[in-house]
Amino acid sequence: METRIISEKQDMRYLNWSHTRNSSGTAGTFLKSQETIDGRKIYYKLSRFDSEKGIIGHECINEIVVDRLLTILGIEHLHYELIHADVEIDGKEYETWVCASEDFKQPGETKATLENYYQINNVSGKTRYEFCKENGWVNYIDTMLAVDYLILNRDRHGANIEVLRNARNKTLRIAPLFDHGLSLLCSCFNQKEIEEFDIDEDRPCQNFIGTRSTLENLSLIKTRIQYLAVD
Known about the structure:
Strand content: 25-35%
Radius of gyration: 19 Å
Strand order of the largest sheet: 1-7-8-4-3-2
Order of helices and strands: EEEEEEHEEEHHHEEEHEH
Number of helices: 6
Helix content: 25-40%
Distance between the termini: 41 Å
Largest sheet: 6 strands, mixed
């Protein structure tokens, strides 16, 4: 699926939305849905939802911005569509923007969160970064850490990195980068907050690998570069 913006309003009131609490610790509820079209599984999500105020976030817009940035940088990632649509939530209609993406699993593949895969397979007691390096994913992880610093991704928990396995073909790979909605100015809801936002401030983020600081996590990359230079 290529990055597209569908401006003509679509009727998507038929979708059923499930409520998911934001795992980053920021107040808000996120709604997700899915359907199968011509054999393709399509996943949908909305920006932050408030039962009283409606859809108040702009995470779907952030997905498209980051999608285009990663395309320019040549980094493998999940592509999104941004769809102008009418949706229905708990019997009430909303005009909003919906983010859509295709399932990145190949036929025969099953997925597991990196957090679960690490807990089951980390028999040698390595750190999460060392474990990924041992599995041949260090370039992916280094790229992810750099990207998350650039966009100030608040939500790279262990379920937002996935491992894809095909038992029959005996293949194992890490999924393309995905889920960048809680980034950029996601905490700003008006012009005043945008103007006062300090892009140089190091804010606490939820990172499965490294610390709660995307800035501090760059030291993992720096350490590896220094090691390669010496080697």
